[in-house]
């Protein structure tokens, strides 16, 4: 399956071989030790070192349910009239789909996928950066993208990446993507990282955001079930990151942004427990 698709999720492997994700994770770890594949993003990819990255079609199938839950929770952090920046990625694309009905929202992005998700949102203003198109993730990169972000100031940046660790922060596999993500982060008062459990503890080639610069982390509840990921959450919290855990629940259990109070959400930074969606606003 990995050879055919370039990447495969642990969930899909468990379904195909009819066993638990715990067993699949153990087997994948053994295959990685033999150099037959690499573990990435809650799944496995063909071996190839730090610089290898699955393309967009493969990424959409990796940790899809987890990304959906993360996007549901992250959407409650956006209020009417906000101005935000949203980076490239399949998780941020999921977030954008949930922001289409937030009135008065301004979204600055370098992602064609994010812009497409909001293209028909009449009450949302979308501002695209300049730059050169990177086809593997449909993102604008390069000096044009970075220069267009100079002098910008917004409330929050929502970004993702390839790996997240307390020691090194958020990282990615591509130098140009990392540089633009840093420019997005520099434009925001707060940084919100969206990362599923498969990215926790992973360290890839180019650092995007050091741990101490991350304000919030939104991850999925699988991160609390495995000891390595749970330890990473504790270490990130010790660095001052407010950790929010999204339960794997149907999207209908979350309030839609238009039903939420108008002021930004106040999150207590709870660790290893779902964040109550009815929390107070600040």
Question: Main β-sheet, in a few words?
Answer: 7 strands, parallel
- CATH class of the largest domain reads Alpha Beta
Order of helices and strands: HEHHEEHHEHEHEEEHEEEHEEEHE
- Do you know the CATH topology of the largest domain? Rossmann fold
Which residues form runs of ≥5 with pLDDT under 50? 260-282
The CATH architecture classification of the largest domain is 3-Layer(aba) Sandwich
Oligomer: single chain
Strand tally is 15
Please state the overall shape, judged from the principal axes of the Cα atoms: globular
Count up the helices: 10
Helix % is 25-40%
Number of domains: 2
The termini sit apart by 47 Å
Strand order of the largest sheet: 6-5-4-9-12-14-15
Strand content: 15-25%
Mean of pLDDT: 82
Structural class: alpha/beta
Radius of gyration: 18 Å
CATH superfamily of the largest domain: Translation initiation factor eif-2b, domain 2
Task: Tell me what you see in this structure.
It is built from ten helices and 15 strands. By secondary structure, it is an alpha/beta fold. It has two domains: 2-53, Winged helix-like DNA-binding domain superfamily/Winged helix DNA-binding domain (Arc Repressor Mutant, subunit A, Orthogonal Bundle), CATH 1.10.10; 64-259, Rossmann fold, CATH 3.40.50. The protein has a seven-stranded parallel sheet with strand order 6-5-4-9-12-14-15, sandwiched between helices. Strands 1-3-2 form a three-stranded antiparallel sheet. A three-stranded antiparallel sheet has the order 10-11-13. Strand 10 (163-165) and strand 11 form a beta hairpin.
């Amino acid at each position: 399956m990995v050879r055919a698709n370039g990447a495969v999720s642990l969930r899909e492997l468990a379904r195909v071989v009819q066993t638990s994700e715990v067993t699949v994770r153990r087997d994948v770890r053994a295959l990685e030790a033999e150099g037959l594949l690499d573990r990435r993003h809650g799944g496995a990819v063909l071996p190839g070192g730090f610089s290898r990255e699955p393309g967009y079609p493969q990424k959409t199938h990796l940790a899809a349910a987890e990304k959906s839950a993360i996007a549901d929770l992250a959407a409650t952090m956006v209020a009417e009239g906000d101005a935000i920046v949203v980076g490239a990625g399949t998780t941020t694309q999921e977030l954008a789909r949930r922001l289409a009905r937030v009135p008065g929202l301004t979204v600055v992005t370098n992602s064609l996928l994010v812009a497409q998700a909001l293209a028909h949102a009449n009450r949302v203003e979308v501002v695209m950066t300049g730059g050169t198109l990177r086809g593997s993730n449909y993102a604008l990169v390069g000096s044009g993208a970075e220069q267009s972000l100079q002098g910008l100031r917004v409330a929050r940046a929502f970004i993702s990446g390839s790996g997240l660790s307390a020691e090194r922060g958020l990282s990615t596999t591509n130098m140009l993507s990392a540089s633009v993500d840093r420019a997005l982060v520099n434009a925001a008062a707060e940084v919100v990282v969206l990362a599923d459990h498969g990215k926790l503890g992973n360290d890839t080639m180019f650092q995007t955001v050091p741990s101490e610069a991350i304000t919030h982390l939104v991850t999925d509840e699988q991160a609390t079930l495995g000891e390595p990921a749970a330890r990473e959450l504790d270490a990130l919290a010790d660095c001052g990151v407010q950790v929010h855990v999204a339960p794997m629940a149907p999207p209908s259990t979350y309030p839609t942004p238009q039903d939420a109070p108008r002021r930004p959400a106040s999150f207590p930074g709870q660790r290893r427990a779902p964040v109550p969606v009815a929390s107070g606003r600040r």
